[in-house]
Specification:
- By secondary structure, this protein is α+β, with helices and mostly antiparallel strands.
- It is built from two helices and four strands.
Length: 79
């Protein structure tokens, strides 16, 4: 299993979720990705998308400089 980072900074809704969805589609079940965003709406949007698509949110964090990160573990579900 691998860990990745995805830069979705300076993108507005719905782009952080779309970028996450497209990236997760290239990963294997059990892989994790930490998504970095400046759109705080992603704190709700990415977890909601994850639940619908069978992925697990491992952590959400508010970072310095107004950024947030959401760590997602890829599930077995097809997107």
């Amino acid at each position: 299993m691998s860990h990745y980072e995805l830069d979705a900074r300076r993108m507005l809704c719905p782009m952080p979720v779309i970028k996450t969805q497209n990236f997760v589609a290239t990963l294997k079940p059990g892989d994790t990705v930490e998504v970095f965003c400046t759109d705080h709406g992603a704190l709700n949007d990415i977890p909601a998308w994850s639940r619908i698509n069978g992925h697990e949110v491992l952590a959400t964090r508010e970072l310095d400089g107004g950024e947030v990160s959401i760590t997602v573990r890829v599930g077995d579900s097809d997107d």
